[in-house]
Fold Glutamine synthetase type III.
Amino acid sequence: MSNFRFKALEIAQSRQALSVAPPSERVAEYYGSYTFNNEVMRSLLSPEAYLKITQAIETGGKIDRDIADEVANAMKSWAVAKGATHYTHWFQPLTGDTAEKHDAFFDVTMEGKAIEKFKGGALVQQEPDASSFPSGGLRNTFEARGYTGWDPSSPAFLMDNGAGGKTLCIPSVFISYTGEALDYKTPLLKALSAVDKAATAVCQYFDRNVTKVTPTLGPEQEYFVVDKALFYARPDLVMAGRTVFGHAPARGQQLEDHYFGTIPPRVNAFMVDFEFEAMKLGMPVRTRHNEVAPGQFEVAPTFEEVNLAIDHNALLMDLMEKVAERHNLKVLFHEKPFAGINGSGKHNNWSLGTNTGVNLLAPSSKPKESLRFLTFLVNVVKAVHDHADLLRASIASAGNEYRLGANEAPPAIVSIFLGESLTKALEDLETKSEVIVNKGDNVYYKLGINRIPSLLRDNTDRNRTSPFAFTGNKFEFRAVGGGANSSSTMTVLNAIMADQLTKFKQDLDARLANGEKKELAIVDILKAYYADSKRILFEGNGYSDEWVEEAAKRGLSNIKSSPEALGVYLKTESLDLFERTGVLSHSEVHSRYEIELEKYVKKVQIESRVIGDLAMNHVVSTALKYLNKLAETAKALVDLGMTTEAEPIKDIISEVSARVLAIKKGVDAMTETRKKANALSDTAEMAKLYATEVKDFFDVIRYEVDKLELIIDDEDWPLVKYREMLFVK
Ligand code: ADP
Ligand code: MG
């Protein structure tokens, strides 16, 4: 086995960076060339069809069959001309991966001749074999009926099959026979529509021209890159996506030199390559840089409408995995692939934009716009405060559990960072006593709102430790896991915002009906909201122990375990919120909860088995061989009469033996506990046992294994070490 490690190291060492050429000289020639985008539609569709389809996209309306036929036809000709042989509905089932089922464009007729077929019906709806996707009890497996339905708001695209051909991918929703959501996209679209409606209504108080509000998302994706040979020499990475053992390297991230360092050539070539592919698919990838930990990097696109941004992110992750193969690299999206150094997040930069081109979370120099800004800002604070636990639930996963609330920072506390000047502005507003506005007075001046923008400008100080930070003109939710589909979080965030804005409108309308002046009424409401929710604001170091204590004093939740966090979905308040906003029915929430729990159990179960397997078959067996060597040496020394010299060797023998024993005991006990957990019929109980008793053994076993890594002869150690994996050339 140790041979395997050294062979892998030799292979990894010998690899060179590939040279990557752009698809063509000018970006405009290939950017978006693989997407059936607006421009293509305009050129291929009749004016009527084009108009109808763009209207349907804009308003989410229905598409007639004859229009669908025309679009299908145009899509097919376009795709076939570009080398497509197959088409598929591309969707995001709750497994967390993307799914596709390829059908050929060609059908064989009764006479055995191939014809090209792709009609509107096949574009709009498809019936994949749904039995292989989780449904959390919504659909009987034997029925195996789920439908995928075209989402026209996300452009169809071409995917290289690798073997030369291409597949036309049609972004779709995935619903059960009875119409319940089986995917991430369906509730997301509903939440986006809910927040559009609620935010537009609020915008109407400020500007009658606002008829649509679009939530925007720019997901910054963090990831690790390791050499492919080394990846395959680590069974834990292969099976669980993270290393279950491994002693921290002497040089980790303490020098903080990786962040500003140059990108290693092999990784740079990989980045350039996947960026070209992403641009062909119309993804506005923009920044690339090293991240804090060695071997860690980030890619960020320019923000887009949320639904599109999420499709693009899912597609980008897929693409990165494929392109990495060409470079003999493996990309890791797991939230915590390596202990002792930073994990990977997917920072969700989020805002709301109007059809009039206004970013509702951008401060303005005009007093009236300032009031609107404050309205949206304070409503975000209130929504996040009131539903902090639901946001926490939306990011719960087995992987993210190692990143949030585990032994290493950050904690799983949801708090908001606003920056000093903005906090001060809100404090001033809150403490302002009754404002009396006389005829001719400038109400904004009296309210002190005219001063806010000047205070704010260029003054959004950075706090990298806050899970939910205001960054000048958007919020950045940083606690989302690197491997997650952002839909869960975006569904919750937009749903709670929709609900909060609806409440705000009710509060305001009640006051206006009393004859109160609009601006004063708004400020009064905001003051009350701020007072209600300001305990969630935190400006300090979110990674410090003091904050954990302080947050507890403030009564903020710190939900460390995923099963517990997921339990929040089932609370009456959550169920009602999802129902009120039209995002998910009670049964849909229940099924989602079940699926997430099952996923959690399976992941931890796999990790536990990998730990047992590696510990016994790789580590303990190596340790026993090493003990043998040591014993022989000690015996030889004693035979030579050198008993004193044999003493330190005996010490090592004692230590190694003790650790081997501890590992063996730990693995045995863990296996017993797993059996106990597996025997439970209630998934929630099972998940809880996995989260506590089973997982408790992980650290115990790891501790001993990592100590052995430091003692046992490097020549014999079977697992590729951190220092060998983390520094790609
Ligand atoms: P930072 O320095 O805070 O990382 P950037 O300007 O680099 O800021 O932006 C980070 C991410 O935030 C990018 O993906 C960017 O597109 C996104 N972003 C910027 N403005 C918005 C917005 N209004 N809505 C959503 N995302 C945004
Ligand atoms: Mg960021």
In short: The chain has a mean pLDDT of 90. The chain has two domains: 31-183, 192-597. The chain has 26 helices and 17 strands.
